[in-house]
Amino acid sequence: MIPIFANSAGIRVSEKLVLQGGCWTSLNLKTRYGVVVHPTHGPVLIDSGYGPSVTEGRARSLALKAYARMTGPALVPDGAPDVVLRRLGYSCDAVRTIVLTHFHADHVAGLSLFPNSRIMACRTTFDAIQARSEIANLRHGIFKELLPGDLTDRIVDVAGLKDVQAPLRLGPGKDLLGDGSLLAIDLPGHAEGHFGLCFARLEKPLLYAVDVQWVLKAVVDQRLPGFPANLVATDAEAGKMSAKRVAQFRAKGGDVVLCHDPEQTPYDLPETSNA
Known about the structure:
By secondary structure, the protein is of the alpha/beta class. The protein has one domain: 4-Layer Sandwich (Metallo-beta-lactamase, Chain A). It is globular and about 50 Å long. The two termini are 28 Å apart.
């Protein structure tokens, strides 16, 4: 069960902003989301990437418009989830399960395409989002307007699932699909409820570490994000520990994929158009 990652948008930044001690070279960061086809559950979506709900429309809040201007995502036309699924031979209706690693805009913007899917996520974080004001959520990088209105009834709480030991001493993970093939690994620091995904049964175990780091070079060299990217984390110390854990997993022989690393990986779907 090998995942495929697609790129929903490119984001132009200087390396110095996302890598401590980096240079001023311009990087075109990717914004990945994933698809994995399970023999029982069918196509499972991993996050949903950026979409027009962030970049277009008068109905957007002023805060979301400002966020879009500041981050400047350039949507990849052939990278939208519905387009990618068609390319793989599926419709949006075929997706019965979405794994949501956290609630930031670049992970939830495509959820509206999947009104009938159950969403596996951190329920405690979702409840906190629901209880907070819009301004308080903004401090956490959350836009409630991007979340489906019926999400309360569709969430499956990852915390309530069975613990299974992940390979390469990664520690325990939550068994998302009931057969030990896909484990949710708690990786706190970047955002509330942030977790990665371990594809435990691959010949070379893979950890999708999502937003633990911006670029793989930071994992390899064990370097921190630069300023101001380092301000994004909700818990900087926890983020450092998560980054160290990911680096150790890779050093023991595991593969690591990040959401935003600009380099093409063996798991990435080739793009037919560029951001």
